[in-house]
Design a protein that fits this description.
Length: about 270
Amino acid sequence: MKHLLTIAGSDSSGGAGIQADLKTFAAHGVFGMSVITAVTAQNTCGVTAVQDISPEIITAQMDAVFSDIRVDGVKIGMVSRSESICAIAEGLKKWMPPVIVVDPVMISKSGYPLLQPEACETLIRELLPLATLLTPNLPEAEAICGFTIHTEPDMEKAARMILSLGAKAVLVKGGHLEGNRADDYLFDGVKGIWLAGERIATEHTHGTGCTLSSALASNLARGLSLEEAVQAGKRYVTTGIQYGLALGKGHGPTHHFVDLYKKAGIFEP
């Protein structure tokens, strides 16, 4: 069994953050572990408060896991402060996991800032060069690249720039494109691939970014090629969105265990 580590914030409502990551790991048949970077007061309607975990405790969590258990892949999500980012980067350089997927979480779906403005440069400087794969949505790619992204050529331009900053590969997610399409662009510095995606008419999309990046980390750690890992991850997330859970008063979460529930005969559509 492969062992995956999520380094991210906690979502008290269970739909995003480390909770979504651990569910995704379980759905992919890998053992999940966690390093918590922040605790959020959050539900389907939005984030109301954030308490950052100290860099010392982040480092201690990483050392505790890596010194005892083989880590086959790491997914990095919410890291709000420069000090936290530096602590994570130092830990990754120390322990050198074979797969590192970075989801540059900057703003919650409700608009709450999850990355301090001054920390963006630190993320670019410290984490991008360590990333096996970076998975920004369009607003996040704009923040990293410094220009607006409205079209597919803009996405290709952003992908090239992100690789020039050090990432080994990037998946620029097109969910914020206008129209009915939500195509993604995968680029590894040699080959660029457009991955078709249709916009699903649902409000229940809480945690989709966390879920996708965790699925990608799982697939890469299990030995799939980059393109295979992304294709499989997109299929998994699409199914989760199609069967999203109508929980709470806002954006409900994706369904992480649709296939398992169907096999067990307990699926309730």
